[in-house]
């Protein structure tokens, strides 16, 4: 930690100084210009139904009183985000009025004039400024902290310059995240704005303003409740190092409980939730609000299987069903097949959770919750072990990763909840984190390709990922070479094993199949119409499982 919680005035000045410092750097402005240009070029791209979702939410929040926000159902895309995001849409609607009033009419379903498209796209780009500033702040903080710890080096000026370059490269890696570009600026969502709040929260906690960071995380939860994926990591960190902090050695001890900090933390959390949910509590609408936020009837898996544990489970069920294979296996042959799930080999498994598996046992929300909790226990070990900023970020990533792997009805887009915070570790500790991030970034972001399914987006998605992967590779190689010259570290390059290289190259073959073979030879056959989606999900799931286990190796390592 750079500052302690008791030094708020100094921290405030330091924060303002850090903000001024990053805004004075020309290369940061060049980066902003570069990424904004890319986003502007993506404006004409295809956009998904999420575009209409957010247009409808603009109309709901601007046209109706708050008492009707979570009851309105003219469109199938009803409001299902927490209240703070609804107020965010309400604020945007005030500017949308001057672009095209038609987008604010509830009955104008699928309304997409040029003015509406421009407003929606520009609103995402503008709100991304928070994400960019927060990223620059956090990367500058953590690598300035490293450089401060190396002041005794004989070549201190060279060392400082190296860490400043490393800070900028990390910012570049995080800000240019290809998943965020594909999901927000093509597919259409506001993840960048939300990640900005998350990164600011991490920034304040790492620099010692724990109360500010915790308040920001509570605010984030009331913008989008999926960030509960990260809540266990935050809870453990705040409990151990804020409510039970030992000032002498930063070790956890229940005998050193700080009641004052506990009350401050609890009060601030309650205040944020009261501010968000208070009006709905007063109106007696909490049950309706919760029914919108947690629609468990949607089924175990999304229409396109997120590449997690359940994609492999679904795949095994379909393989057993294919051509009656289960009849040839003694354990399965006497099972009764449900007649309403024995259709398409690669059906999306979306809708009622009763229509999930034909052979394997039915999975229910309580089962997914139990498995998730069990795997969360080792995930938070790193946070308990150390207060180090790396362990805190890694704990956030692994907590989110665990929910991604075993959660109920996980969306494939949730992979960027892991890759973006993990990007801050991409150049840390040489190959320990860089290899992990390189594999997860390549595989995880490739798994998003089915979101951009139109032929006109194929070139775009390939260029975005290829450019980023090359940039990431060069950044890692450059950083490791400099590290080698300083520490005589012979572990140069990515350090990929042969089987890891073969697996990554396999993504090229998979893309060739998806572009040239499936559409022309298999797509017209009903039985194989979704085979490309299934293969993509299963293949990328293997790599993502590998990265998930690799993080456990990092957490339990002695270093």
- The percentage helix is 55-70%
- Count, helices: 21
Mean pLDDT: 86
Q: Beta-strand percentage? A: under 5%
Largest sheet, in brief, is:
none
What gross morphology would you assign?
globular
Number of strands: 0
Content-based structural category: mainly alpha
Q: Give the low-pLDDT segments.
A: 1-13, 151-155, 339-355, 488-492
Distance between the termini: 18 Å
**Order of helix and strand elements from N to C terminus:** HHHHHHHHHHHHHHHHHHHHH
- The rounded Rg comes to 24 Å
How would you describe this protein?
The chain crosses the membrane at residues 29-47, 119-143, 198-220, 226-244, 265-286, 363-384, 391-408, 414-429, 436-452, 458-476, 497-522, 528-551. Keywords: Endoplasmic reticulum, Glycosyltransferase, Membrane, Transferase, Transmembrane, Transmembrane helix. GO terms for molecular function: dolichyl pyrophosphate Glc1Man9GlcNAc2 alpha-1,3-glucosyltransferase activity. It is found in: Endoplasmic reticulum membrane. With 559 residues, this protein is mainly α. It has a domain at 301-362. Helix content is 64%, strand content 0%. The protein is built from 21 helices and no strands. Helix 8 (191-206) packs antiparallel against helix 9, helix 13 packs across helix 21 and helix 18 packs antiparallel against helix 21.
């Amino acid at each position: 930690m750079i500052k302690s919680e008791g030094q708020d005035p100094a921290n405030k000045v330091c924060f303002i100084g850090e903000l001024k410092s990053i805004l004075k750097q020309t290369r940061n402005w060049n980066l902003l210009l570069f990424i904004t240009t890319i986003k502007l070029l993506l404006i004409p791209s295809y956009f998904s139904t999420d575009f209409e979702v957010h247009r409808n939410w603009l109309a709901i929040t601007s046209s109706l009183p708050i008492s009707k926000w979570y009851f309105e159902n003219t469109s199938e895309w009803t409001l299902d985000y927490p209240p703070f995001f609804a107020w965010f849409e309400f604020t945007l609607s005030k500017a949308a009025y001057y672009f095209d009033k038609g987008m604010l009419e509830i009955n104008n379903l699928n309304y997409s004039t040029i003015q509406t498209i421009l407003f929606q796209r520009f609103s995402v780009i503008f709100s991304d400024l928070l994400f960019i500033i927060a990223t620059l702040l956090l990367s500058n903080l953590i690598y300035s902290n490293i450089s401060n710890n190396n002041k005794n080096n004989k070549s201190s000026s060279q060392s400082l310059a190296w860490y400043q370059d490393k800070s900028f490269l990390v910012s570049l890696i995080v800000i240019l995240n290809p998943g965020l570009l594909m999901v927000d600026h093509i597919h259409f969502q506001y993840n960048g704005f939300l990640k900005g709040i998350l990164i600011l929260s991490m920034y304040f906690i790492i620099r010692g303003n724990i109360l500010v960071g915790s308040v920001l995380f509570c605010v984030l939860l009331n913008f989008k409740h999926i960030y509960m994926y990260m809540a266990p990591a935050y809870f453990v960190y705040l409990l151990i190092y804020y409510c039970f902090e030992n000032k002498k050695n930063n070790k956890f001890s229940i005998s050193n409980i700080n009641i004052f900090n506990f009350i401050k933390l609890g009060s601030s959390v309650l205040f944020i939730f009261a501010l968000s949910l208070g009006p709905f509590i007063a109106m007696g609408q909490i049950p309706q609000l919760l029914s919108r936020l947690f629609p468990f009837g949607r089924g175990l898996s999304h229409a396109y299987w997120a590449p997690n544990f359940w994609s492999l489970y679904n795949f095994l069920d379909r393989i057993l069903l294919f051509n009656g294979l289960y009849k040839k296996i003694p354990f399965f042959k006497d099972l009764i097949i449900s007649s309403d799930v024995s259709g398409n080999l690669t059906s999306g498994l979306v809708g009622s959770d009763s229509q999930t598996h034909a052979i394997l046992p039915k999975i229910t929300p309580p089962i997914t919750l139990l498995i998730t909790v069990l795997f969360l226990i080792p995930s938070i070990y790193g946070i308990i072990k150390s207060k180090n900023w790396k362990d805190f970020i890694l704990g956030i990533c692994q907590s989110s990763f665990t929910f991604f792997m075993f959660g109920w009805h996980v969306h494939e887009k949730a992979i960027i909840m892991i890759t973006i915070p993990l990007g801050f570790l991409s150049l840390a500790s040489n190959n320990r984190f860089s290899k992990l991030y390189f594999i997860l970034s390549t595989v995880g972001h490739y798994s998003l390709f089915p979101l951009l399914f139109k032929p006109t987006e194929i070139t775009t998605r390939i260029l975005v990922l290829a450019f980023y992967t090359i940039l990431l590779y060069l950044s890692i190689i450059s950083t490791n070479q400099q590290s080698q010259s300083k520490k005589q570290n012979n572990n140069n390059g990515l350090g990929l094993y042969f089987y890891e290289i073969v697996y990554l190259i396999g993504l090229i073959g998979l893309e060739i199949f998806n572009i040239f073979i499936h559409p022309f030879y298999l797509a017209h056959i009903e039985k194989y119409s979704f085979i490309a989606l299934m293969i993509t999900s299963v293949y990328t799931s293997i790599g993502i499982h590998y990265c998930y286990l690799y993080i456990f190796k990092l957490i339990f390592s002695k270093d």
